[in-house]
Amino acid sequence: MRIPTAIDVDTAATRVHGHVRRTPLLRTEVGGRECLLKLEHLQRTGSFKLRGALNALTSGERPEQVITASGGNHGLGVATAAKSLGLPVTVYVPETVPEMKARRIEEAGATLIRHGATYAECAAAAHDAVARTGARYVEAYNDPDVIAGQGTVAREIAREAPDVDTVVVAVGGGGLAAGTTLGSEGRTTVAVEPHGCSCLHQALSAGDPVDTDVDSVAASALGATRIGDVPFEVLRSADVTSVLVTDDEILAARDLLWEEFRLAVEPAAAAPLAALVAGRVPGELPCLVLCGANATWTPSA
Length: 301
Known about the structure:
- The chain is α/β, with parallel strands linked by helices.
- It folds into 2 domains: 6-48 and 144-289, Rossmann fold (3-Layer(aba) Sandwich); 50-137, Rossmann fold (3-Layer(aba) Sandwich).
- The protein is built from 12 helices and 10 strands.
- The strands form 2 sheets. Strands 1-2-10-7-8-9 form a 6-stranded mixed β-sheet, with helices on both faces. A 4-stranded parallel β-sheet has the order 5-4-3-6, with helices on both faces.
- Helix 1 crosses helix 2 (49-57) and helix 7 packs across helix 10.
- The radius of gyration is 17 Å and the shape is globular.
- 56% of the residues are buried.
- The model has no long low-confidence stretch (mean pLDDT 94).
C-alpha cells in the first residue's frame, strides 16, 4: 500500500495548475469567533473532487477509457477531468443519487449507470466492469494520487493564510481529510462527520477500518460505508481530531451560511461550520472548507 506524502501534494499542485480554480478565502467571524471560509464550492464542477480526479488521470500512462463509482461529486469531477483529457468515461452512481448531480455528470459527457442503494453497491458494479474491460478505475478516496490532488485545497490555505492553525473538513471516505493533513504544512486537521455517517470516527475507535451504517442528510456526499485504507493510515498517523455533528446541526449551519453570507452549499459542506458553532473546533484561527454545492438547495426553515 503506497502512502502519499506532502511531496506528492506539491507534485499534484503542478499537475492541476491551470485546470482548477484557486478558490477564494473569506476571513470573517461566526458567533464572535474569527475564522476563514475556503470557498471550494466555487470550484469547477461545484466541489473539490476535480482536483483529485485530474491528478489521478495525469499520473502514469494514459488510459484508453475511465470508469468510476460515485455518490455524485466525485463522478462529476472524474467526468469533467476525463472530458478535458479526451477520454471516454462511465460513472456508476447509487439509485439514490440527487438528480442535480446525475444530470451534471451526463452533461459533462459521461455514460451514467445507476446501480444499487449505496455507494458500496455501485462501486462493486463498477469494479466488475473494470475487470471485464480493463478500463482505468479512479477511486473516490482510496488512492494516493487522488488524496494528493485533494491536498491542494489545504496547500492553498497554508500559502495564502499562514496564520491559520486549524483546517476543518467534512469526511466521507477520507480523501479530503487525508489530503488536508498532507497539504496543510503541519496544521491541525479537524475531520467532521455526521453521527449517521461516521466511518472515520468508528475506525479510529476500533483501530482499523470497519463497515458502518449510512443515515444522514449529508449521505449523498459523505455516505461512504467504510473509510479507505490509504486515507486511514494517513489520518491515524497524523493524530487527526475527529468530531461528530447531528443532522439538525448541519442544516442549521447550512442556513446560517445563507443568512449571514449568502453562500448556498450542500449539507456536507456545512458540517465544518456545524462543528464550529457547536464549540467542537480547537485552535486560534480555524479555516473551514466548504467542499461542495451540488444539491438542490432550499433552506430548512
